[in-house]
Specification:
The structure holds three protein chains of three kinds. By secondary structure, chain A is mainly α. Chain A is built from 14 helices and two strands. Chain A has a two-stranded antiparallel sheet with strand order 1-2. In chain A, α2 runs antiparallel to α9 and α11 crosses α12. The longest helix of chain A is centred in the last third of the chain and has 27 residues. Chain B has eleven helices and no strands. The radius of gyration of chain B is 19 Å and the shape is globular. Classes of the chains: A mainly alpha, B mainly alpha, C alpha/beta. Chains A and C meet through α1, α2, β1, α12 and α13 of A and α1, β4, α4, α5 and α8 of C.
Chain lengths: 309, 290, 450
């Protein structure tokens, strides 16, 4: 019975979130879209980093691929935009599968740097590729007509799917395998866990979500440039959202993403100081609460939540 | 004849440049080797050192090389205290926190430099390095040559330090088994502090040499981070020899990649070389067991 | 298995409390925000000009003068003129220039532009400093339907997003630079050979320049020794330099970031490659860039500028001449002037002029007034309706977008400059060739490097 009432609250929350664009102003809608997009990508990034021990510094690959595929498919090939988004997701997942073979051989720091390098190679390839506008970038004109009241929904859906995916993954057999890998990969291997398959599946799922985030983001921002689409700052932002909130938790990134979006808007007013303030605040939060804001709150309130929360 | 000489010259300059890269990557190699952390602010520390040297050069009219007498100890202190008060606090929480802390630090350094020195381009270049040397028909770049020679000297000194001194031995022992090190009375945190100090001391030298060789401004730091990481992972974490050789490979890859594949694929070729080496040897050329 | 674990009652109630709190907070914030945003007062308090600018990050050097310029103009208009007269309200209304820092990040630029539109309700937007900033900002203006003045950008890169409905640009056209440089080379006659070494950055500017140079060089019988497109941050150029040296090219040209050009030019010196003319696009705009090359190496390098204190124009707002604006900036900042000052001021002139003529804050009316602009600014005349000159038509013909969307841009003609040792500052630029702007004085004669 108690469990049931918990579901009722989730349903109410979803109902509120779904109806939000109908009665919330334009700016807040914009902010919420960003909030959901960063949340979606950071949830899976945090899960991968904390529970599977896969610290990727190359998730910008998928942001860029998602954005470019969506824009190119719908502008150059006339494919409907929603279909382009779905195809881009599949393409991103496929690319993640391909990249798994060389990259997942690496562990820890090597993997992190390997993914970073791979992202740079792909960025350089896009900077030189005339078909996608090369270094000029790409203006996604077809997306001008799509209002934020509509973009809001795929963004919300991505965030919800991402949260459920992390929840389900954690409790699945795969999640168990991943956690044992995260704890000690050699031991997991010895216990008969197929480490490659586990890690690759996790990497592909996370990259799928990240690619979709990139796709929705380009519809929202309507502009692509290889240097910014494949910029490490995407991954660092996801890391910020995940770590500030509490890496490896589900609630943490919700707080992290809200802070991230709020900081972005707030600090832009302090001319010439915006980045400095942001850096100092991140340092301060991390030194004060190294495990993230949510972990600190839940410990203080003695919530005793089950691990993935 | 002229043809062959220009090939030799290319390879020579690649080698000299490689020395400079190795020196730049060295600080990162020490930290990654001992603590298994990724220091995103590495390049910014180097640029910070270059700005310190610039300030000393402008206020006292001191040669950039001599300014190292001040810059190196300052950077040692920066490394020691930053490790003590920041990294050590989050180290136990895992690698993610360290990446974020160093990234935040990178932003802070860049923007402090922007506030103090504005976005103007700077250089430590001194007229005596802007000459045209001719040696047996070869033209080694004096700016890169200085980097190369300094790299060899620094690596030699560090090698002796690791082999002969107690502190050096302790630094090498901690990453293998922090628990065991603790049992024989080595406090890993203290060792980390000294290691970070040492890393930044070398970064200071590298920063001044980079300032002599290239133009810099507050945002230049990140440019050197990826190349440095490439050098470190290619050589293998914790291997001094690996870092030196990784630097040479990168220098040659850059020069020869530009020559054979054209300028557009120069950097891509470098990155692919690093990735290929990692594919063949997932722990780098000289990396031991993780 | 984990799913069936019993959850303690305490945890559940806390959970409920938190969920309820989240719902209430979101609802409250949403409700108050939508109330606040639907509340539009009758007569506007300010004319709001939105200006997302790269005050930090890699483009910070370009936006250095932005806050100062905005303050100067805002003070002058509000205090000296008492605001701008809007006929719709029958009174003068003060201006408010809202600057936001984009951190040189195109994605944040889009976010910030959208915020200025949806939250601050700006009446007109300014988008300046390189395609990485102008393109995302003007894309957001198109999306939301806000008049936008684009400047200090490369037109071909910006026009990639054409057709535009709301954006108008005062920009630079790539084909100009190539012709400007080759007209200059031609004027040297037999003093230099017709071999041109070329190197370009692998980015929109570099590509555009490279393409134009190839066309012009072929037409005028020059041989190109092309090093191709180089990515940023290459530390070594020796392979190309050997090639240029052995081919004996007297002219070196290209379009690169200043950092990379500094590395290149030092290396040319080290490897003993001594061209007679070095004419670089982009890398030689700012004095600090030139100075950082080091030693005597900057002496005699040739670049271009689209504005200088020698340009005989003055501000339509303050009446300042170009040289007075330079003096004011140098007195305020203690720093040498840069060519960015001119257009940074001119966009404000155009924005205020458009609002004044619209007499209203209706966005469509402002846009229509903007399209009709015919104003003499501190950076020269701005008239979007003026036709291209015959020379421009000949140059721009291969570029479809430049021909097709003439109504949305004006071109600022560049002049060639040479860097020489200065009296007030270490290196100062002299205009050596005024090209298609006879009104701009040539302040020095060009000299060859060897």
């Amino acid at each position: 019975m108690e469990l049931k009432s918990r579901y009722i609250y989730i349903v109410i929350l979803l109902a509120v979130l779904t109806s939000l664009p109908l009665w919330v102003g334009g700016f807040l809608r914009d902010a919420l879209i960003l909030f959901f997009l960063y949340l979606a990508a950071a949830e899976v990034w945090g899960f991968m980093a904390k529970h599977a021990g896969i610290v990727s510094l190359g998730q910008q690959i998928f942001i860029g691929v998602g954005g470019y595929t969506t824009a190119v498919l719908s502008m150059y090939f006339g494919i409907p935009m929603y279909a382009s988004v779905i195809i881009s997701g599949l393409l991103g997942a496929g690319l993640a599968g391909l990249l798994s073979f060389p990259l997942l051989r690496l562990r820890g720091v090597y993997f992190a740097i390997g993914t970073f390098l791979a992202a740079e190679v792909i960025r350089l390839a896009f900077s030189g590729w005339e078909f996608v506008g090369a270094g000029k970038g790409l203006i996604f004109r077809d997306a001008y007509g799509i209002p934020t009241t509509i973009i809001y929904y795929p963004a919300l859906a991505l965030a919800v799917i991402s949260i459920f995916l992390v929840y389900l993954l954690y409790h699945s057999k795969l999640g168990f395998g991943l956690r044992s890998i995260g704890a000690d990969e050699d031991v997991a291997c010895g216990l008969g866990v197929n480490t490659f398959v586990c890690k690759a599946t996790c990497f592909i799922l996370a990259s799928l979500i990240t690619t979709l985030v990139g796709a929705v983001n380009v519809i929202h921002h309507t502009y692509l440039h290889p240097t910014s689409a494949f910029s490490i700052s995407w991954t660092v932002n996801f890391l910020f959202v995940a770590v500030i909130g509490g890496v490896g938790t589900i609630v943490g990134p919700i707080i992290g993403s809200a802070l991230f979006v709020a900081f972005g808007y707030l600090f832009a007013q302090y001319l010439g100081l915006s980045l400095l303030l942001e850096g100092l605040i991140v340092l301060a939060i991390l030194i004060a609460l190294p495990q993230g804001v949510w972990s600190a709150i839940s410990r203080k309130l003695k919530l005793n939540l089950k691990p993935p929360l | 004849m002229m043809e062959i000489l220009s090939y030799i010259n290319l390879i020579l300059n690649g080698l000299l440049l490689g020395g400079l890269f190795a020196l730049t990557a060295f600080g990162l190699s020490v930290l990654a080797g001992i603590m298994r952390v990724i220091n995103i602010a590495h390049g910014d520390f180097a640029i910070l050192a270059a700005y310190l040297s610039l300030t000393i050069m402008n206020s006292f009219g001191m040669d950039p090389f001599l300014s190292l007498v001040f810059v190196a100890p300052i950077m040692f202190a920066v490394g020691y205290f930053f490790q003590k008060f920041t990294i050590n606090r989050v180290l136990a929480m895992g690698a993610n926190q360290v990446v974020l802390v160093t990234f935040a630090l990178s932003i802070v350094i860049q923007n402090l430099l922007l506030l103090i020195f504005t976005a103007d381009a700077r250089s430590l270049i001194t007229p005596y390095l802007l000459t045209n040397i001719e040696l047996f028909g070869l033209n080694p770049s004096p700016r890169y040559a200085v980097g190369f020679i300094s790299a060899l000297i620094v690596f030699g000194l560090i090698f002796i330090f690791f082999k002969k001194t107690y502190l050096g031995k302790a630094m090498r022992a901690v990453p293998f088994d922090p628990e065991a090190a603790k049992m024989i009375g080595i406090k890993s945190e203290v060792i980390y502090n000294y290691a970070a100090g040492l890393a930044l001391l070398v970064v200071a030298i590298a920063g001044v040499l980079l300032g002599l060789a290239f133009t810099f401004y507050p945002d230049t730091g990140p440019m050197y981070v990826l190349l440095s990481f490439g050098v470190v992972v290619m050589g293998g974490l914790g291997s001094l020899k690996g870092t030196l050789i990784g630097g040479f490979i990168l220098g040659e890859a850059l020069v020869l990649g530009g020559f054979f594949f054209g300028s557009r694929f120069q950097l891509m070729f470098c990155y692919l070389v690093i990735l290929a080496i990692l594919y063949l040897r997932p722990r780098g050329l000289f990396g031991g067991k993780v | 298995m984990d799913m069936k674990m019993p959850i303690s009652a305490a945890a559940i109630t806390k959970m409920h409390a938190i969920i309820m709190a989240v719902v209430i907070i979101i609802a409250a914030v949403g409700a108050s925000a939508s109330y606040y945003l639907t509340l539009r007062p009758g007569a506007p308090e300010y004319i709001k000009i939105g200006w997302p600018a790269p005050l930090t990050g890699t483009l910070a050097g370009f936006a250095e003068t932005t806050p100062w310029m905005a303050q100067q103009v805002e003070d002058y208009v509000n205090n000296k003129l008492g605001g701008i007269y809007l006929s719709e309200y029958g009174k003068k209304i003060p201006i408010k220039i809202i600057i936001r820092d984009t951190k040189s990040d195109p994605d944040l630029a889009a976010t910030i532009a959208a915020e200025l539109i949806t939250k601050d309700n700006v009446d007109i937007m300014l988008a300046l400093y390189s395609p990485a900033m102008t393109n995302p900002i003007s894309a957001q203006c198109e999306k939301y339907g806000v008049p936008c003045i684009v400047s200090q950008t490369i037109l071909l890169s910006w026009l990639m997003g054409a057709p535009y409905e709301w954006s108008y640009a005062i920009g630079l056209a790539e084909p100009d630079f190539a012709i400007l440089f080759f007209d200059l080379f031609d004027s040297m006659g037999d003093k230099v050979n017709k071999k041109v070494a070329m190197i370009n950055a692998d980015d929109p500017d570099g590509r555009g320049f490279s393409e134009s140079i190839k066309i012009v060089a072929k037409a005028r019988g020059y041989t190109l020794i092309d090093a191709g497109l180089v990515p940023y941050g290459a530390a070594d150029y020796s392979s190309y330099i050997y090639n240029w040296k052995s081919s004996g090219a007297d002219i070196l040209t290209g379009n690169m970031l200043f950092v990379d050009f500094a590395t290149l030019w030092r290396q040319c010196n080290e490897l003993g490659y001594k061209p007679k003319i070095v004419a670089m696009s982009r890398a030689l705009l700012f004095p600090s860039w030139v100075e950082a090359i080091g030693g005597e190496l900057p002496n005699g390098l040739i670049g271009y500028t689209w504005w200088s204190p020698f340009h005989p124009y003055k501000s339509s707002i303050t009446g300042q001449t170009a040289s007075q604006l330079v003096e004011a900036w140098e007195a305020h900042s203690g720093k040498q002037w840069t060519p960015v000052l001119g257009l940074t001021h001119a966009v404000l002139e155009v924005a205020i002029d458009a609002v004044k003529r619209a007499g209203s804050l209706d966005k469509t009316k402002i846009r229509d007034a903007l399209a009709e602009t015919n104003l003499n600014t501190i950076a020269g005349p701005v008239n979007f309706k003026a036709p291209l000159t015959p020379q421009q038509q000949a140059r721009y013909r291969p570029f479809e977008n430049l021909m097709k969307y003439k109504d949305h841009y004006v071109v600022v003609s560049p002049v060639a400059i040479q860097w020489v040792k200065g009296s007030k500052w270490p290196w100062e630029m002299q205009v050596i060739y005024n090209w298609e702007s006879p009104e701009i004085p040539e302040t020095a004669k060009m000299f060859l490097l060897s």
